């Protein structure tokens, strides 16, 4: 049998952010409906090489596809070699036969499906008239979140802060070229938060950047960076009284920003309002007034990779992209 | 960068059982020396499709390779399609950079590395003059165990029993063509055990086949079939007083034949004599007399896949086998 192979370029030309947002929404709903088997994340660490490897896998009963993503972060890459820091590979198997259908680069998909998650939360929870976005971090995910958000809201200003100031000029150029927004470079986190309707954090920070006092009533927060124990971007006090939504409660409680708020004693697990899939499915009220602070904590779920990769696979086949290889 | 792709035929022509036995011995030693990070096995089940998928992954600090094996069993394959029941795919990543080095078929490797495990245990624990082997099951693993055993001992007779009698004629033809042994087809498990120096069980049985009374003093038992809760090939009484060796104690206690003996109250975890890696490393006495019953319970470890796949990868590169694909 033939397995389709797709490079990062094939993946890039196979799908748009709009399609990914739709696919991830459907994925969240499948998860909420109990159609998804999603084993715990597998983690291996290579501290001597400043690297880590995670495996996120799931079976989605709705599309009958098993997905396995092997994603690595090796933080010395680019110095002694020309490899990217983040490398990912996604395998799709037929859930009816176990046959390997497709193997594709997964680096781009991780970025784009995470961007999509943020946008879905904003569509559901941000104020409809949101125009100004604070962004923390100036890397790939700081771009993806804005690109995705611009698909669902009429964003006009991006106020970006990064500890690494030298990356911000390029960030501004690229984001302004891609979307009809004005990018304002900010010297402090507090400055970035000024007038923000939505605030997105995408850093690897281990000590929080954003104080509770800087968050205005009515803000929607998208907490992306904290995806393992020890990472922290937000003052835990931000969680007090906020409408807290998780992608997966079990994951966010064990490795997300939500973990920090629980450890700090600000909230308990029972204070988490909902999983995002429940909101997509219309099971609970969304934002209830313009004063509420809403907070979406996302640690990244295998179902996002599953539905995005299946979409890529379908579109690549339609477009005749990629090469085939017969493993068996 | 280029990733090497190897089909089942490339894998087959890349390595011999002898090399795999050596590689797996080295793997067991790395594991024993604490050089291996081996996360828990990930399992997904597709009962509606009579299928299951496991992921076995590890990082071997000795060869600096991360391996991920995705292995499926879909037991209706071959009826409505022409796919094999067991399908596996192995990915090798560079433990220094996370780069995907090689993707290969893993179906054959699972069989061959499991055969190698049995032979390693026999080399260490069976009586040196062992000549007669009882084999339960007539499938692929029932062949592999014999092929591997013939590398390490002077086996002359194979006494095979299978519930599926119609597969035995082909088993006899193939094994006799491959090795200098006489294959005797047996009507009952008791008949297979007559005069056996070594007894190997490779069935998916859920109720034990072999009674304690049929096991002669001095026998070495290789328990392969029971690799998940609910499977059982041996009367738990066989464990009483036996020298019990596991590949991984944590795995065998939770999903191997050893689990059944513990649940039956015949032994406790503390009665397990050693992990196989300790014996390979010479840390404990092996068989101490000709009367002792020794028992090796193997559930299959990711480190076996790792070292075998790395060997395949090296040899395939030397021989110029396979194709390359650039994912990134």
From TrEMBL, chains A, B:
GO terms for cellular component: cytoplasm. InterPro entries: NAD(P)-bd_dom_sf, ODC_Mu_crystall, ODC_N. It comes from the Bacteria. This is Ornithine cyclodeaminase family protein.
